[in-house]
């Protein structure tokens, strides 16, 4: 079996601060991490590898420094890492990102399972996985919290707000991971030595010329959506004391306000 | 079926706003009426109509209910192959209809199902999709849909447009938009559609449904958190906190004081040494508002404080404050919520 994991390097949003004057993100000094859901996707791939005979390839589209995320993935136990990096990919929205990733997956060739995270914490869109699946014309199961294989099929438990669905799918299939799926491992010492030893350049880098791709479909120009403006949400506190004759009256006023604000 | 980004289409061929209705096990999901309410707001003053698409099987009676929310038409895609949810079947059937009828805007609920099917639809059709929007407006200058959504964990808001592709598609966060009003008379009609689905089209099949049993506590994703502090006076105080949380569909939080007293598990602790939370509504009951507690909840959208001490620091950071005894205020709040619910469908 062959598994491909799509993994994105993201800024740790817990650390992201906003420049209140310019309304932009302060990225300086903000650590970059492997997107948390993608770590669950990778962990699952490594578990499947341990139980079945297979290889794990990790793919990431991003600037050269995204190599660090791929190195970490190799240190965790991935077999092969490919960075998709090219000026032409810059400014891609989910459509354009999925177009590049799908083209790279086609170049990798054979695969049985593609694992993505459910969503990346910078954009929170959760769209890239399903769009890749559509472009490759393969089935998808999103929000996966348990994955098994039986008789050449994937048996996946997917979360919904009202209960879980058990879904059976032929392969190849694309799955998106949520954090309930597993607890990601730490890299082993041996893995770290292999991945980070000086001179070991074990990450392939592919640019636009390495892929069979329609250049009008990628980057800023190929994106279907554009950011028109961005702004910092204003979170000023109303700071209103609710008065009333007694607790009952105050409670009624409060619930009225919450209801008007559509909060309950 | 996949189209390219530069669709080279005639934008004026596209009209009307469609809501992709969501049904689960034959029951319409509440996000559907929220999307109808929003769509009706967006068509005001234009010639566009509001239409709902709903896929399923043998759910005529449920589908007809939608007509009482002022929609102009419901496309009911009916097939035995659509009886249970499948990404393959639902997205194929709905995408075909969208390509045929050319709506200008398509809204999908940002539920775990909507966020599965939305991107699949957009990719099939060849258009953009904006995820999890919390605000939609029409740009008065050119009629484009301005789609606003949070990014970077809510640190930044972005307004996004889909300039050259159609339809303009968004998934919309549940619980944000105002529900359409239920009217006495139905105006629109239901049009039945038979999709061109075959059994082989459905590759990933639901083989079992497991209704969620006991709820695990999940403070980070909770929209509403009701928290108790030392002011609840003992472990049984959490019965009251829990009752309010359940009524509002929220989770129970706690200050460290109560955890240290052994009144509740550490899983519930909010603050510097507990969980950091950012719900839409945080209701602090009998919590003084020590800085270590505030560190874990001050990013909540709305903070409500109930405390007997008018000088309690929590009142400095709240949106709405009630000086009062939580044992009196909380039961009264629950009564008021019941009254509200009595008006709902
Ligand atoms: C290193 C460190 C880390 C810490 N981390 C955390 C943390 O993660 N989370 C956390 O919460 N705390 C934390 N603390 C503890 C924090 O400093 C406070 O001690 C704690 O938050 C106080 O909890 P409280 O508000 O429930 O209790 P109190 O401060 O005792 O406040 C109780 C409040 O209830 C009100 N009250 C009394 N009766 C009623 C009634 N009938 N109706 C309504 N109101 C009533 C009182 O007026 C009072 O304001 C930490 C402290 C340290 C030193
Ligand atoms: N630039 C990228 N490189 C590799 N994988 C990505 C990239 N962007 C998104 N993904 C994958 O798609 C998932 C969903 O991302 P998003 O749609 O941006 O929320 C992520 O969890 C990743 O698995």
TrEMBL record, chain A:
It holds the Pfam family ETF. Transmembrane segments: none annotated. It comes from the Bacteria. Residues 22-215 form the Electron transfer flavoprotein alpha/beta-subunit N-terminal domain. PANTHER family: ELECTRON TRANSFER FLAVOPROTEIN BETA-SUBUNIT (PTHR21294), PROTEIN FIXA (PTHR21294:SF17). This is Electron transfer flavoprotein small subunit. It comes from Fusibacter paucivorans.
UniProtKB/TrEMBL annotation, chain B:
Keywords: Flavoprotein. Coiled coil: none annotated. SUPFAM superfamilies: Adenine nucleotide alpha hydrolases-like, DHS-like NAD/FAD-binding domain. The keyword Manganese does not apply. The keyword Lipid biosynthesis does not apply. Residues 17-206 form the Electron transfer flavoprotein alpha/beta-subunit N-terminal domain. Pfam families: ETF, ETF_alpha. Belongs to the ETF alpha-subunit/FixB family. This is Electron transfer flavoprotein subunit alpha/FixB family protein. The lineage of its organism: Bacteria, Bacillati, Bacillota, Clostridia, Eubacteriales.
């Amino acid at each position: 079996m062959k598994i491909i994991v799509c993994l994105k390097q993201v800024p740790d949003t817990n650390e992201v601060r906003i420049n209140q004057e310019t309304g932009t993100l302060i990225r300086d000094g903000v650590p970059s991490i492997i997107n948390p859901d993608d770590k669950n996707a990778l962990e699952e791939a490594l578990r499947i590898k341990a139980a079945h005979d297979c290889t794990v390839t990790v793919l990431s589209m991003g600037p050269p420094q995204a190599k660090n995320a791929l190195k970490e993935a190799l240190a965790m136990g991935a077999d092969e890492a490919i960075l998709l990096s090219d000026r032409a990919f810059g400014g891609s929205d989910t459509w354009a990102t999925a177009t590049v990733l799908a083209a790279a997956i086609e170049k990798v060739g054979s695969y049985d399972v593609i694992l993505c995270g459910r969503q990346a914490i910078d954009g929170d869109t959760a769209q890239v996985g399903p769009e890749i699946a559509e472009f490759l014309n393969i089935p998808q199961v999103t929000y996966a919290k348990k994955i098994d294989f039986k008789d050449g099929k994937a048996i996946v438990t997917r979360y919904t707000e009202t209960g879980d669905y058990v879904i059976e799918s032929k392969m190849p299939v694309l799955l998106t991971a949520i954090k309930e799926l597993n607890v990601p491992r730490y890299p082993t010492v041996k893995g770290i030595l292999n991945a980070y030893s000086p001179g070991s350049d074990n990450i392939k880098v592919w640019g636009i010329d390495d892929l069979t791709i329609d250049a009008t479909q990628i980057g800023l120009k190929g994106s279907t959506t554009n950011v028109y403006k961005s702004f910092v949400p204003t979170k000023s506190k109303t700071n209103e004391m609710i008065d009333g004759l007694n607790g009952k009256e105050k409670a009624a006023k409060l619930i009225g306000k919450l209801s008007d604000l559509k909060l309950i | 079926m996949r189209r390219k980004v530069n669709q080279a289409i005639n934008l004026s061929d596209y009209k009307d706003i469609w809501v992709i209705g969501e049904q689960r096990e034959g029951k319409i999901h509440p996000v559907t009426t929220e999307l109808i309410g929003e769509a009706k707001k967006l068509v005001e003053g234009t010639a566009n109509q509001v239409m709902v698409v709903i896929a399923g099987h043998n759910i005529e009676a449920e589908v007809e209910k939608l007509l009482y929310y002022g929609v102009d038409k419901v496309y009911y895609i009916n097939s035995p192959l659509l009886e249970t949810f499948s990404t393959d079947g639902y997205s194929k059937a709905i995408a075909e209809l969208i390509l045929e009828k050319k709506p200008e805007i398509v809204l999908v609920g940002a539920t775990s199902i909507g966020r599965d099917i939305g991107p699949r639809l957009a990719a099939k059709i060849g258009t953009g999709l904006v995820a999890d929007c919390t605000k939609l407006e029409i740009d008065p200058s050119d009629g484009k849909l301005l789609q606003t959504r949070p990014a970077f964990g809510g640190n930044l808001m972005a307004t996004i447009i889909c300039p050259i592709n159609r339809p303009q598609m968004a998934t919309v966060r549940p619980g944000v938009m105002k529900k359409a009003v239920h009217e006495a008379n139905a105006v629109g009609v239901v049009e039945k559609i038979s999709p061109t689905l075959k059994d082989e089209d459905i590759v990933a099949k639901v083989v079992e449904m497991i209704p969620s049993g006991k709820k695990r506590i999940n403070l980070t994703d909770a929209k509403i958190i009701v928290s108790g502090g030392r002011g609840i006076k003992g472990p049984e105080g959490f019965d009251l906190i829990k009752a309010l949380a359940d009524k509002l569909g929220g989770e129970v939080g706690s200050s460290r004081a109560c955890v240290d007293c052994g009144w509740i598990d550490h899983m519930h602790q909010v603050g510097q040494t507990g969980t950091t939370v950012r719900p839409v509504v945080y209701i602090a009951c009998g919590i003084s508002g020590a800085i270590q507690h505030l560190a874990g909840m001050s990013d909540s959208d709305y903070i409500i404080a109930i405390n007997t001490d008018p000088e309690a620091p929590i009142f400095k950071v709240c949106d709405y404050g009630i000086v009062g005894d939580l044992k009196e205020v909380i039961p009264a709040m629950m009564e008021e919520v019941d009254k509200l619910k009595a008006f709902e469908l």
